[in-house]
Amino acid sequence: MEYKGELASYEMKLRRKLDLFANVVHVNSLKGYNTRHNNLDLVIIREQTEGEYSSLEHELVQNPYQFDVLVMPNLYGNIIDNLAAGLVGGAGVGARHPFAQAVGRNIANPTAMLLSAANMLRHLKENKLTFFSYRLRLDFSNLLQ
C-alpha cells in the first residue's frame, strides 16, 4: 500500500515500505530503583496504522501486575506505553524514551539511552559486543543497588 500526502512522515513511509506495522515496548522495573510499582515487567505491542480508544489505562494504573502483554491499536498503545513507563519511574527509566526535552536543563536521566545501547550491542550478537552489553547492564545494576 502506497501512502502519499503532506502528512505522511518519513517514519511512516519507511514503516510501510518495510512492512513494519507493530511497535514493541518492553517496560520493566529496575532492581534498586524503587517506585510505587516494583517488580513490574510487561510488554506492549501497538499497531502503528490505525486505532481506537478504550479505558484500559485505569486498570493498568490500579493493578499493573495483572498484565504480561498488552496488544493495542496505535494511538491507544502510545498512551499506554507512556503510562507504563511512568509506573516504573518515568520516561527515560523503564522504556525506550530518553526524555530529549530535558536536554540542557540538568534533569535528564540517561538510563533509557544506556540500556537501549546495551540492548543494541546484545542484538548484534558479536562476542565482544555481547560482553560489553552484559558489562554495561551489570555495572548499571550494581550502581542502583
TrEMBL record:
Q: Does the keyword ATP-binding apply?
A: no
**Domain Isopropylmalate dehydrogenase-like, residue spans:** 2-144
InterPro entries named among the record's database cross-references: IsoCit/isopropylmalate_DH_CS, IsoPropMal-DH-like_dom
Sorted alphabetically, the keyword list is: Tricarboxylic acid cycle
Query: SMART domains, from UniProt?
Result: Iso_dh (SM01329)
**Tell me, what's a Pfam family for it?**
Iso_dh
Recorded superkingdom = Eukaryota
Subunit-structure text: Heterooligomer of subunits alpha (IDH3A), beta (IDH3B), and gamma (IDH3G) in the apparent ratio of 2:1:1. The heterodimer containing one IDH3A and one IDH3B subunit and the heterodimer containing one IDH3A and one IDH3G subunit assemble into a heterotetramer (which contains two subunits of IDH3A, one of IDH3B and one of IDH3G) and further into the heterooctamer.
The Swiss-Prot or TrEMBL record describes its family as follows: Belongs to the isocitrate and isopropylmalate dehydrogenases family.
Q: What is this protein called?
A: Isopropylmalate dehydrogenase-like domain-containing protein
Q: Which organism is it from?
A: Xenoophorus captivus
